[in-house]
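Continuing the batch. This is chain 6 of the set; chains 1 through 5 are on the previous pages. Same settings as before, nothing changed between runs. Recording input and output for traceability.
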Amino acid sequence: MKHPRRLAIAHFHLRPGGVTRVIGHALAALSRSGVKVVVLAGPSEHRDIPADACVREVEGLGYAEDLAGSAPAAEGLAERLKEAAREALGGLPDLWHFHNHSLGKSAAVPLAIERLAAEGQRLLLQIHDFPEDGRSANYRSLLEHVGERRAALLGRRLYPQAAHIHYATLNTRDLAFLRAAGVAAERLHFLPNPIALRDEARESRPAVLAPKTGLYIYPARAIRRKNIGEFLLWAAVGKKTDRYAVTLAPTSAADLAIYARWRAFARELDLPVEFEAGHDGTVSFPQLLARATAVVTTSVAEGFGLAFLEPWLAGRPLLGRDLPEMTGDFKNEGLDLSGLYARLLVPLDWVGADALRARIEESWPALLAAYGRAPRRGDVEKAYAAACEGERVDFGRLDEGLQETVIRRLKTGRKTLAALSPARLAPEREQAAVVTKNRQLTRQLFNLDQYGQRLAEIYGHVLESEPAAADPMDPETLLDLFLAPDRFCLLRT
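Output for chain 6:
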């Protein structure tokens, strides 16, 4: 099997967070392979990238606040990418590995990729998040500025199809969705993220779940889909001695406004929550996890979810919300995720059935309209039924206003806690055996050596593919799958 001699890895930025950590892990996995690698990115920090990595900042590669002006820059961006790669590698790369090109943060990037593909450049497009999956503003901008208001054209440009263009997904759900939309199986690759923490052995220590003072850490950027309201619910119903911390603030204006609302709400109710814990960089990410009694996730949607695996390497139990579409891959490998709940049910009459249905009736057509679609008969009832279970509703399916109503109700007295299901968010049983088992499995299944081998195999498949046209995928099928009404969540509008 062929191996690249020169490789370019490209992403919009290298800010601290999930994709940047994945790139850093990839560099570590490839460090002994003999491959010459350059990382191309827009202006950003490099905290999660090895200090000796070859990094080049490329003008026009970063996020664009307004996509209107970025499409004409595509040709220039393609040339600057090639120029930066040549300067760093001594020639054009044998393979380009792009992360999240289709997210909708730039019109220039997918159009520049289209140009590279037309030249016969071999490409691996690794998708972490889809604009079709609850990112309606992103999709709307792409439709106008990349697809010229035509969904079929957007599909061809956002997901170009040719023998020398391959795709990698982080989970088997996304793999199945792309396959159903028409991407050839031989050009689709399952590439779960590697999991590694620096100084893991030194930072980790045995976990005890219920000390007198508990510290529950949510290692996430507090964007809307991370469901911060549910984490504040944890703080509202926890023991008086417990403390809670979320690690990173969002960066977009829309998410920052909601984030400010939650911070003000936490102050108003005097909830024991620290925001942006460890943001100043004085405490490393492994050190931060090592201080926790347990790690919590309340996210309602993930592309992969490092938070489902990283806690085990830090010797910490994982608690909170399960996402079966993501965690099914992990459970099939034997991980014990019994500390997670599939739903957090609260009495429907606390928010009002009519109020919930009205929110869905307002938000569902607006969401579909952003994708150029209209609701079908019965959609609202399907979405409403998916949110409810008998006379209860899943807290994660509520919007911020309804979540605030529930949290205020819970703060009125301890008797209200009996109405929650599960009644105990943090299990009281000892988790040491679960942590030990999951730590061993995570090391075994998601280590850097395994990741390096997967990367090498995928790169080999891409390099052996001779440039040739292929049938386009069907973007409407992809939208059908992501926009199924039973998947609808108010926090994703």
